[in-house]
Amino acid sequence: MDAVSAHARTLDEGNPFAARRGRFRLPDGVIYLDGNSLGVLPAAVPERMRQVVETQWGESLIRAWNEHDWIDLPQRVGDRIGALIGAAPGTVTAGDSTSINVFKMLAAALSLRPERKVILSDNGNFPTDLYVAQGLRDLLDKGHELKVVAPQEVEAALDDTVAVMMLTEVDYRTGRLHDMAGLTRKAHAVGALTLWDLAHSAGALPVDLGGAGADFAVGCGYKYLNGGPGAPAFLYVAPEHQPRIAAPLTGWMGHEAPFAFDLDYRPAPGVDKMRVGTPPILSLSALDAALDEFDGVDMAALRAQSVSLSELFIAEVERRCDGLELVSPRDHARRGSQVSFRFEHGYALMQALIDRGVIGDFRAPDVVRFGFTPLYLSHEDVLRACEILEDIVATRSWDQPRFHKRAKVT
Amino acid sequence: MDAVSAHARTLDEGNPFAARRGRFRLPDGVIYLDGNSLGVLPAAVPERMRQVVETQWGESLIRAWNEHDWIDLPQRVGDRIGALIGAAPGTVTAGDSTSINVFKMLAAALSLRPERKVILSDNGNFPTDLYVAQGLRDLLDKGHELKVVAPQEVEAALDDTVAVMMLTEVDYRTGRLHDMAGLTRKAHAVGALTLWDLAHSAGALPVDLGGAGADFAVGCGYKYLNGGPGAPAFLYVAPEHQPRIAAPLTGWMGHEAPFAFDLDYRPAPGVDKMRVGTPPILSLSALDAALDEFDGVDMAALRAQSVSLSELFIAEVERRCDGLELVSPRDHARRGSQVSFRFEHGYALMQALIDRGVIGDFRAPDVVRFGFTPLYLSHEDVLRACEILEDIVATRSWDQPRFHKRAKVT
């Protein structure tokens, strides 16, 4: 064993999450560095799905809404996510997609600043957030402007025209981590509200929405939270805004008394008014089961492991591979739980890696991205991934026609 | 065997769907007359869910988007639903909730009639449709009016101020069936567009959106389509409107090239522009598997069975039970696949029925509602339900404190 392998093994011996690895179903022969795109299947999910499908739905049928308290599942799951992101009970609800939740939160935020017209965002935001803002701007037709600047220019762009600063905390492409507390403070200083997208934060690093004074937030259930493909998303409304905002999507589950079947809409109290349609019980249940894997997890310890894994990865890739340029911030304090490199033939390189069992992903035009999920990833995995990457780069084995063929989803 | 039982048995012998009953998991001791609220579990769903969770998600992980073509699942499921409602391929997409789809379709419709301000609906519409319209009206803040009339007054209320006539074809409470083709024609005659909610139609009776010239439609996956609790909903956009409408909820899955990750939104062609966030693969897969049960089903034959079941139910209830007043239209041509009765102590009556294994549901303030789903219901079931109802009414066994206790979900 060489010195690096010995080092990796030593690091793994101190891994407080080593015992949790067995609670995830990792396919044989795969090193999965894409938990930031779709989390691995938690071992408890299949049995929970069987129960929900065969027993709750199959046996209880319509009675399950009461017998299994399906009706409050969005709130229960919301509170469990809230515990991971510094959100008090009753401030988070789970459901719909991240995009739809961005729409709800952005519309709510704009309604609190009717005299201001600027939605400030950055070009590292995930495109769907920007698309939703563009659609809302056009729908409202009240002269709002979506101002998109570079991430490092956000602070300077904050002024008293800004109604909402809408940012994704961790850049999906580069892993760059915004200073949530600092930017929120600065936004508030000019009277702007904040909407944080936690898609690459929740379950990946410590988040403290309450401590940061964030106004609104949304996030994703299928990345670090391991809720399954297209899992329900979540949203957060700070307690002080809950009584003051109107829901733009006013479905019956956000009604004060859904089962009174009144003809007139009356908002439910609190964050519940942001619920819309009938909750998706199957996928919410999968997410609920997946959250079991976060029970007892110290997010600071998880962050320490994530940093350790990604630092090892950066060091070894830079030591072993020519032509890969680090895109992510080198300072781990400014980086989320992913590391990205630029490589001219990034698409083909990623296909070659996947072919060898190292799964990361590619983001156009030339970025290869690797996510680090300490609950099911070891330093030895990371080192093995580096060895395979080194071999592919050294032998140019990415340069085969089959690795250049574009798939529908990249 | 008495004459009625013999009659029921004879009717069942001619049931073309008798062999399908075994393809649904009916709990022992239950006569389920609530498939219009939550459809029964199709026997094929558990295995499909196991595959999707354990093999597709568990083994393929992120690769499943291509390997199992998850990305097009909303369109594939949409086309399968389309085949049941007279919608051409490429006009229906599955996803989100009915409420959210009402929002999308109503906003799209209003954008095509900018000079008109009236949304016409009726008080038999499911409340969430009205709530969504109220929310959209307030959000747009352009002087729209939601005009809600009695169902029989809709036709007279159609005039050249109406932008959209938004109706649920089958009244969730009474089962009253609107004349979709006739009302659509009359709406078009005054220049109004139509938005049909098929929540209690799809999978329950023949629907011909194309033939009726309907403009927009939405519907529910968890009622007669048996897609599971909170299953994805669907929406329909007539071909001629597809190039002309803008999506109000502009998420990345409705983008022309989602994986180009452009900063600017450009709508996808056709109905795909109405997609929003990442599709909920687990629940979409359950719905997809459930739709297998409609393969080869002649909707006219299904309708004939539904009428036969509900006619028997009405006749026997009226013959056997005092105090129940038929709320549904007596003429089956004007009725969907459910039958409702008014009963002063409707809530307690339904609880007592459920306690005896006859599951229908209650709609405030005093309606007991029974749905008829020919794929898994026989005339003998219906007759047995009538016998139990007769006994409960005759002995006033509903009048026990435990049957009056209100549950959270009624």
Automatic annotation (TrEMBL), chains A, B:
GO terms for biological process: anthranilate metabolic process; L-kynurenine catabolic process; L-tryptophan catabolic process to kynurenine; NAD+ biosynthetic process; quinolinate biosynthetic process. One of its GO terms (cellular component) is cytoplasm. InterPro entries: Kynureninase, PyrdxlP-dep_Trfase, PyrdxlP-dep_Trfase_major, PyrdxlP-dep_Trfase_small. The modification N6-(pyridoxal phosphate)lysine is found at residue 223. It is an enzyme of class 3 (hydrolase). Its EC number is 3.7.1.3. Pyridoxal 5'-phosphate binds at residues 98-99, 126-129, 168, 197, 200, 222, 252, 278. Its cofactor is pyridoxal 5'-phosphate. GO terms for molecular function: kynureninase activity; pyridoxal phosphate binding. Catalyzes the cleavage of L-kynurenine (L-Kyn) and L-3-hydroxykynurenine (L-3OHKyn) into anthranilic acid (AA) and 3-hydroxyanthranilic acid (3-OHAA), respectively. HAMAP family: Kynureninase. PANTHER family: KYNURENINASE (PTHR14084). Homodimer. Belongs to the kynureninase family. This is Kynureninase. The lineage of its organism: Bacteria, Pseudomonadati, Pseudomonadota, Alphaproteobacteria, Hyphomicrobiales. The gene is kynU.
